Amino acid sequence: MTLASATVRSERRGPPGGSQDKRSRPAGRSAGTWFLVLPALIPILVLSVGPLLYGIALAFTDAQSGRTRSTQWVGGLNFQDLLHDTLFWDSFRIGLVWAFGVTVPQFVLALGLALLLNQNLRMRWLARALAIIPWAMPEVVVGLMWRLVYNPDAGILNETIRDLGLGDGRDWLTGLATALPAVIVVGVWAGMPQTTVALLAGLQNTPQELHEAAALDGAGAWRRFRTVTWPVLRPVALAITALNFIWNFNSFALVYVLTNGGPGGRTRLPMLFAYEEAFHYGQFGYAAAMGCVMVAVISVILAVYLAGRLRGGEDR
Amino acid sequence: MRASLRTTAAAAATALALLLTGCAGTDDGRDASGRIELSFQSLAWQKESVDANKQLVKEWNEAHPDIHVSYVQGSWDTVHDQLLTSFEGDEAPDIIHDASDDLADFAYSGYLADLRGLLPGRLTADIPRQSWSTTTFGEGVYGVPFLQEPRVLIANTKILTESGVRVPTPDEPWSWDEFRQVTKELTGKGRYGVAWPLKEPVSVTLNLGLSGGGRLFHRGADGKVTIRAGEGDQVVPGTIHDQVDTDHSASRTALGMGGSDTLPGFFGGKYAMVPLGFSYRQQVVEQAPEGFEWTVLPAPAGSAGLAQGVSPQTLSVAEASPHKKEAAQFIDFMLRPPNMVRLAKGDWMLPTGTAALADPSLHTAENGWATGVAVAKALRPAPAQSVRGYPEWKDKVATPALQEYYSGAIGAQELRKRLVDDGNRVLARYQR
Amino acid sequence: MSMRTSRTARAGQYAALLGYLVFLAFPFLWLISTAFKPARELGSLHPTWIPDHPTLDNFRKAFDEQPLLQAAANSLIAAVCAALIAVVVATPMAYVMARRRSRLSTAATGWVVISQAFPLVLLIIPLFLILKNLHLINTLWGLIMVYVVWALPFALWMLVGYVRAVPAELEEAASVDGAGRLRTLVSVTAPLLAPGIVATALFAFITAWNELFFALVLLKTPEKQTLPVVLTHFIGAEGAADLGPLAAAAFLATLPSLVIFAIIQRRITGGMLAGAVKS
Predict the structure, then answer these.
(1) In B43-117, beta strands by DSSP E
(2) Helix axes C243-278, A124-136, angle to 10 degrees
(3) What is the nearest CA distance from A57 to chain C, expressed in angstroms?
(4) Which residue in A80, A205, B175, B298 has a CA-CA distance of 20 to 30 Å to A105?
């Protein structure tokens, strides 16, 4: 493994805080520190923290595109409107279905693949190379590519279904019932490599000796996984699923290219919805309010998830 | 507050900005030698039409050394979002190619120049009044409509002749009932009478709906627009719905397709007819297998005859352009009758100008040109395109509602409720 | 553990692996197949995996129809600049975050995590308005600055991991030997950090190379647009698409990141993991 994961191992041994304090040096270097930190800090403040605060402020205005109007404070009016905007909540529900629908299979499939790739199988190199492909592709290309696959008449999926005698195929991306599942499959496909690679790195971190000892004790594969592998993998799994969830909930390009929110709004993720509101209808303030609601809900979900999981870890 | 936030942010980043951009000079659209620089953003998509546009720009530049036009390629798919943000960012092209149904919000927001007084009498007189009405918003005229396409039926000649159904002509088109009957007859094993590519169902439904007397949008005495559904509004949606869900003479899978997605099935004999925009003939010509015979038929007619709505392609001038007069001159040049014919042929569409439409080369029966020209006089402005809030109604309310109705998920009652009740709520937000 | 694996289990593993390979690879193979098919085969109702008459027409058409070279050049400039600037500003900060325990480090770490949760929509509107006031809308520089900030969280995350992997004792030993702080950094820390920095830069490069959303909103004039934006142009009105050239262009756009990924795959893993476990 690489340098970095070696550290991971060493750090896990000691209490996390302790080893760090030892490394810290006494004060008396603040000028130097600022010199090191400022180049990153300034752009972060101007183009990340600033816009965030600005965005939150915008949510309380009636900012719109146009040469003719001036912007005014409207207090919570946008949020009130949002409360009654059933289309937005539909979209929000779709966003949650999408985020869970992608994150969970992504994790399960990636875990399976990572376990396989961790075995001493032949052709493993090929599998590793192929597993990376989706990650390396621009999301736009992934979307375009799957459009080709899903194409009802000229696509390979329906042709395969016809060849296997399973019927006439479907209009995957444009059918009201199939669009969201079809898009979710693409989401799983596109996000699997990252998850796999992270989990694989975690797996390669499990001490081989423990595994062998457990095997000699006669522990079955499942028990070995439960008692030896999983405890080591847990922090990685926790972090990567949390990140995946956020990324998925906020994803844009994939669905923008695949369906652009159609058919009938069935795949209109909240990001797409807010994008349309801002850059299609020019309702900047209203769109910013949507963004605020999204941040709030995501934070709550994550807080619950991480808190629950971390506590679960302590109980054991 | 926006101002103060802006100042803070701007001040914080000024140093960086100066480093990166140098001082932003004033831009009056002239280059160093005093030559006027104009940018023309074209949405031409098919190769022939890109070539025609670029060629015309080249000819203009050769004839006008003091006014240089640069060709900029845009895209239909993203044009609205792209224009909105360029207007906001003060980066809009001087001459803007778009479609009339996309102009309303830009015109009302003050981004487009009122062309009255800028265009020469020749051009104003050449284009019929009803075409002008597609680009008239409030008092002003915000674009020159120059190309339009009716929706036509592209049919598989062999299937049509074998079935023995009456072949319609512009003088004697099918009625909507007859059309429904015919598609039933054309349907057979592994074959549908028609495939409706309704990925964007709203404009098709509204535009063809005019033939059955559909209107949907009603402007009251106070100038406010409301949506009401009458008998005539149900003719076209009803026919499509029945073809798909009752007769099974229209393919269900095709409902979600865009026009070109239906072509493989059409060439393969899976669909006997496809209602498509007139310009799709270009793709048919290019992709049809050897020996495939096809023909262009007029769309069915209703109580209002062959009437159907169109949203012509338009050329507009940005309000922020420092050289509106020259930009209008360029538009006039592009749309001289011979040039309009070239653009029309490049896009496989019909010109709006009467002089161009009379050009003999457009009256050939080859590739169905003559059928299109014959339908041209029945073309009307697409309903509702001048209504504020129409785009949002279309995307958020009408598209999902129609898609669900056509696929059989909801009935006519629910469709009407959504189009009207939900629709009026959206419109109200824009008409406060 | 391989010694205990029975033959049937092994067979099952190979079958599962094959399933994964098919799932992961077939869309890409279909893309390649489509890219080499002539128009008539693309219009066929019964498409085949191997084109009957393979052709390069689609590639020629793709270059004819859209300014692909220009777009690729724009993407390259944006991605290279963003990657370089990102590591240049991130490395010192990551060093401080890894070695010092201060309120600043804590705040920065917090931001790294939180910034992942921002919906871009909330950021893009203010960014758009701010950049507009700086006259940076529709410039590659504006886009590059956005990309730098956008790549920073992940770059910091990775780099902090790499810095921690360099034993602080080494630096202490060097300073005990009388080397100045700067010299210690340059002669001891930097060489050990170099592979990590390269991996981080390449990662930032790919992120920028692939990015659509910001480019879509911030770049207006077509000659400034990046590759992902231009790719969306192959989809015309009503979703009509010219499948062949679309596939050809998409295939070409993927090659650079595929190559880079092949090179840095393992290093990224390490960095990601180190960061992941720490947070």
Answers:
(1) 67-73, 95-99
(2) 100
(3) 10
(4) A205
Select from C13, C32, C55 the last residue of a domain: C55
pLDDT of residue A209: 76
Question: pLDDT tens across C112-167, in order?
Answer: 777 777 777 778 888 888 888 888 878 899 999 899 988 888 888 888 888 887 78
Q: Among A136-150, B197-211, B339-353, which is the least confidently predicted range?
A: A136-150
Q: Do C239 and B16 touch (CB under 8 A)?
A: no
Tokens of B353: 């100008």
Q: Which domain holds residue C10?
A: 1-55
Residues C150 and C186 in one domain: yes
Statement to judge: residues C88 and C172 lie in one domain: yes
Query: Are residue B174 and residue B43 in the same domain, yes or no?
Result: no
Q: Which of A 90-109 lie inside 8 A of C, CB atoms?
A: 109
Neighboring chains of C (3 or more beta-carbon pairs < 8 A): A, B
Q: Which residues of chain C neighbour A309 with C-beta distances below 8 Å?
A: none
Comparing CB atoms, the residue among C14, C165, C206 nearest residue A3 is C165
> Does the residue C138 lie in any domain?
yes
- Interstrand relation of B36-42 and B67-73 (parallel, antiparallel or unpaired): parallel
- Indicate whether C34 and C76 sit together in one domain: no
Q: Which two tokens stand for residue C196?
A: 């990590």
pLDDT at residue A277 is higher than 80: yes
Chain C residue with CA closest to A126: the answer is: C21
Residues C222 and C137 in one domain: yes
Regarding whether C187 and C121 lie in a shared domain, the answer is yes
When the pLDDT of each residue in chain A is averaged and rounded to a whole number, the result is 79
Q: Domain locations in chain A?
A: 17-58, 78-315
Tell me the C-alpha to C-alpha distance, in Å, between residue B220 and each of B69, B209, B210, B225.
43, 21, 19, 6
**Shared-domain flag, residues C267 and C135:** yes
Instruction: Tell which of A171, A172, A180, A266 to mutate to test the B interface (max B CBs under 10 Å).
Output: A171
Q: What is the mean pLDDT of residues C241-267?
A: 79
Angstroms from A178 CA to nearest CA on chain C: 18
Q: Minimal Cα–Cα distance from B125 to chain C, Å?
A: 30
Q: What is the CATH number of the domain that holds B261?
A: 3.40.190.10
User: Does one domain contain both B73 and B214?
Assistant: no
Neighbours of chain B (3+ CB pairs under 8 A): A, C
Instruction: Give residue C131's pLDDT.
Output: 84
| Residue B142 in this model has a pLDDT that exceeds 60 | yes
Q: Each residue of A163-215: pLDDT tens digit?
A: 888 777 777 888 888 899 999 999 999 989 888 888 888 887 777 777 777 77
Q: Cβ contact (<8 Å) for B395 and A280?
A: yes
Burial of A160 (0-12, 13-18, 19+ CB in 10 A): middle
Write out the residue range of the structural domain in which residue B204 sits: 151-298+388-428
Nearest CA in chain B to A59: B2
Tokens (6 digits) for A127: 């599998």
| A40, A144, A302 member nearest C90 (Cβ) | A40
Q: Is B287 in Cβ contact with C42 (below 8 Å)? A: yes
Q: Same domain, yes or no, for B164 and B79?
A: no
Residue C49 phi/psi, 5-degree rounding, is -70, -45
For residue A263, cis peptide bond before it (omega within 30 degrees of 0): yes
CB–CB of A171 and B256 under 8 A? yes
Of C9, C35, C55, the residue at which a domain comes to its end is C55
Q: Read off the pLDDT band of B338 (50, 70, 90).
A: very high
What torsion do the CA atoms of A185, A188, A191, A194 make, to the nearest 10 degrees?
-140
| Rounded-to-integer distance, Cα B175 and Cα C44, Å | 33
**Among candidate residues B296, B264, B261, the one with its CA nearest the CA of residue B281:** B296
- Which domain CATH number covers C102? 1.10.3720.10
Q: Mean pLDDT lowest for which of B147-151, B163-167, C29-33, C178-182?
A: C178-182
Indicate whether C20 and C114 sit together in one domain: no
Task: Specify whether the CB–CB gap between A4 and C197 falls below 8 A.
Answer: no
Judged against a pLDDT cut of 80, whether residue C37 lies above it is answered with yes
CATH of domain A78-315: 1.10.3720.10
